[in-house]
Design goal:
By secondary structure, the protein is of the alpha/beta class. It has two domains: about 230 residues, Type I PLP-dependent aspartate aminotransferase-like (Major domain) (Aspartate Aminotransferase, domain 2); about 90 residues, Aspartate Aminotransferase, domain 1, CATH 3.90.1150. It is about 40% helix and about 10% strand. Strand 6 and strand 7 form a beta hairpin. The model has no long low-confidence stretch (mean pLDDT about 100). It binds pyridoxal-5'-phosphate (PLP). InterPro entries: DegT/StrS_aminotransferase, PyrdxlP-dep_Trfase, PyrdxlP-dep_Trfase_major, PyrdxlP-dep_Trfase_small. This is UDP-4-amino-4-deoxy-L-arabinose--oxoglutarate aminotransferase.
């Protein structure tokens, strides 16, 4: 029996593990020199813009909304096809998420529908680069500028992806990255915000840790009710080891995605993702031909699992979760997001996968689908 192939798995090298051990032995394990080094490395990666790290991307985005002054009575425009963190943070800020359906080609927010959703209460647009495929940054920022809106890019999945040859995060307004273990680089858990200037970065630091500023003479002050979001040096050491490999990880992901495009049987009725050179291939997500199948997605996934292959779901359309239904959202409001949410599957894709693993997945996909196609 061949080994079980998960849909994702982090690649942590021995040097990184040794460096984590060094931090643990050093006597300083919370935020310290490794956090500073990781922030410097990320700043380099994002074209010299200031970057600050925290213990999750959710936290980075919570603070980003604070920096934008978004609160009660404000509206933020975003997509229903994302991890629910994207909209939960808006609710937690006391603001209102205004959802716009996705473009079925990209599965990202349909920018052609954004302007119609803008009201006098709109403060920001919160686009998501689903699966690492960037939202059209030219069009996005043209709309934001025209209407005087801030942008918080939820780039949790798109570290290293590009738009017009420029790295996502190296330009634009605030940009949030996630280092959850499933993402293209990890700090175990963690996240980062790319900021516009040092003043904004200092404000971020206050929100990150109890609103406290420490002065050179040893005194301190607290002038806002900040939270507890700081990343530890243990996690930062993992991130430093990962950042060295990020571009190689992404190149490997792209090669594996290309193999999927070459090998997936086009007669199975699967709807493949857009084959874009801008993507960092965070995920590879075909849509199942449910109308042509005599079984459902859960059974399909169980059958793949029985073949030793892990398949994920990212994501159900979030407006159909009970929290959002209770706020007035319902079936039929965002048909493209609902179609993707109901039929999407995430196939195995991670840097340590072998070429032969892709073939194995494609063979299982053919066998399982052919058995259930009407
Ligand atoms: C992973 C993810 C998040 C949340 O990141 P955390 O680091 O787990 O808080 C937010 N948005 C999207 C699109 C994600 O994929």
């Amino acid at each position: 029996m061949t080994e079980y192939l998960p849909f994702t798995r982090p690649s942590i090298d021995e040097d990184t593990i040794a460096d984590v051990a060094n931090v643990l032995r050093s006597g300083w394990i919370t935020s310290g020199p490794k956090v500073k080094l990781l922030e410097a490395g990320l700043s380099d990666y994002f074209g010299g813009r200031p970057v600050r790290v925290v213990n999750s991307a959710t936290g980075a985005m919570e603070i980003a909304l604070r920096l934008m002054g978004i609160g009660a009575g404000d509206e933020v425009i975003t997509t229903p096809m994302t991890w629910v963190a994207t909209t939960n943070i808006i609710l937690n800020a006391g603001a209102t998420p205004v959802l716009v359906d996705i473009d079925p080609a990209t599965r990202n927010i349909d920018l052609a529908k954004v302007e119609a959703a803008i009201t006098p209460r709109t403060k920001a647009i919160l686009p998501v680069d689903l699966a690492g495929l960037p939202v059209d940054r030219d069009r996005l920022y043209a709309i934001a500028q025209k209407h005087g809106l801030r942008v918080l890019e939820d780039a949790a999945q798109s570290q290293g992806a590009t738009w017009n040859g420029k790295r996502v995060g190296s330009f634009g307004d605030l940009c949030s990255i996630s280092f959850h273990p499933n993402k293209n680089m990890t700090t175990t858990e963690g996240g980062a915000l790319v900021l516009n200037n040092e003043a904004e970065a200092r404000e971020f630091e206050k929100w990150r840790l109890q609103g406290v500023t420490r002065f050179p003479d040893g005194t301190m002050d607290c002038d806002l009710p900040g939270g507890k979001y700081n990343l530890t040096d243990v996690s930062a050491a993992v991130g430093l080891g990962q950042l060295k490999h990020l571009d190689a990880f992404n190149a490997r992901r792209k090669a594996l995605a290309d193999m999927y495009f070459a090998q997936i049987d086009r007669n199975l009725g699967l709807e493949l993702p857009l084959q874009s050179a801008d993507s960092n291939w965070h995920m590879f997500q075909p849509l199942l031909p449910l109308a042509q199948m005599n079984t459902g997605r859960a059974d399909f996934i169980a059958r793949m699992h029985a073949q030793g292959i892990g398949v994920g779901i990212h994501y159900p359309a979030l407006h159909l979760f009970s929290l959002y239904r209770a706020r007035g959202f319902a079936e039929g409001m965002f048909p493209h997001a609902e179609h993707v949410g109901a039929s999407t599957i995430s196939l195995p894709l991670f840097p340590a996968m072998q070429d032969s693993d892709v073939t194995r997945v494609c063979t299982a996909l053919s066998n399982v689908l052919r058995a259930v196609l009407k």
